[in-house]
Automatic annotation (TrEMBL):
GO terms for molecular function: ditrans,polycis-polyprenyl diphosphate synthase [(2E,6E)-farnesyl diphosphate specific] activity. It comes from Drosophila rubida. Its cofactor is Mg(2+). It is found in: Endoplasmic reticulum membrane. The lineage of its organism: Eukaryota, Metazoa, Ecdysozoa, Arthropoda, Hexapoda. This is ditrans,polycis-polyprenyl diphosphate synthase [(2E,6E)-farnesyldiphosphate specific]. It is an enzyme of class 2 (transferase). Its EC number is 2.5.1.87. GO terms for cellular component: dehydrodolichyl diphosphate synthase complex; endoplasmic reticulum membrane. Its main location: endoplasmic reticulum. Belongs to the UPP synthase family. It comes from the Eukaryota. Residues 1-19 form the signal peptide. Keywords: Endoplasmic reticulum, Magnesium, Membrane, Signal, Transferase, Transmembrane, Transmembrane helix.
Length: 272
């Protein structure tokens, strides 16, 4: 009898926890819907508020990232192309020149393909260019249609990179296979004898394969219920400060500014 009572209490607790999580998720979605509805009807005022917010942020911060990476977890259900483009607009306003997008989801579960709303660079097929004019042509309502950012400088097109799943561990495995096949050559023997030379050569080959002529990302935003990089370029994010934005919560200019403040307060590890 006591065992049945314990099982019944355990089931009841599980049901209460599931109900609480469901209500919490519903509350977040209603909040996000309210924010987005307000942004839609008040886009001009929102644009001005965001510009003032980022102007104040830039004045108060001593450092800003040059390269931002967005990591969308495989469990994320709410980040879509519109959300990604809004973040592009925020990055452009504060003067971040490079943004990388790594989406761990499949095309059947919301994968964001930046080629659908970005223009491919003529010099490098791995680089995409994004500007608010392209978003305006697609009738996206985010209010960013100016050509001057919060720094007061004329903005060029944002350089965007789509990081693929094959750019992570699979690419490392490919490089290791190449080293193994050529293990008898004098070049590989020299690299194996000196670990520093091997590390530098691997970095050089990997970056050449990637085709990303940009600095390593300093700030990463993970959209997921858990803090995980989901196989993001392990050698290319050695000094990146990652911040997790819980799944389902609304992400706006205020959230972006708060992450910039957190990044500015962090001491870069640099191998510590």
């Amino acid at each position: 009898m006591m065992q049945l009572l314990c099982l019944w209490i355990g089931q009841l607790l599980l049901m209460l926890v599931a109900s609480y999580e469901l209500l919490q998720q519903l509350c977040r979605r209603l909040q996000a819907f309210a924010h987005r509805s307000y942004d839609y009807w008040q886009c001009d005022q929102q644009q001005q508020n965001n510009r003032l917010l980022f102007e104040r942020t830039i004045r108060e911060l001593e450092k800003l990232p040059k390269h931002l990476v967005l990591v969308i977890g495989s469990d994320e259900r709410y980040v879509n192309a519109s959300q990604v483009q809004r973040i592009f607009g925020y990055a452009r306003l504060v003067g971040i020149p490079y943004v990388s997008v790594y989406d761990a989801r499949s095309p059947q579960h919301g994968y964001v393909d930046i080629s659908q709303f970005c223009r491919q660079s003529a010099s490098n097929n791995r680089i995409y260019l994004w500007s608010p004019q392209q978003q305006k042509q697609q009738k996206e309502q985010n209010g960013f249609n100016k050509t001057i950012n919060a720094n007061g400088r004329t903005c060029t097109e944002l350089q965007v990179f789509q990081i693929r799943a094959t750019d992570g561990h699979a690419l490392i495995a490919q490089m290791c296979r190449e080293l193994y096949v050529n293990r008898g050559t004098a070049e590989v023997q020299t690299l194996l004898a000196k670990r520093e030379l091997l590390s530098e050569k691997l970095d050089e080959r990997l970056n050449k394969q990637l085709g990303f002529p940009v600095p390593e990302p300093e700030l990463g935003i993970v959209f997921s219920a858990v803090t995980c990089t989901f196989g993001l370029l392990p050698w290319h994010a050695r000094f990146t400060e990652f911040h997790t934005h819980p799944s389902g919560r609304h992400f706006d200019a205020q959230c972006f500014a708060q992450l910039l403040y957190k990044y500015a307060r962090c001491e870069q590890r640099w191998g510590k």
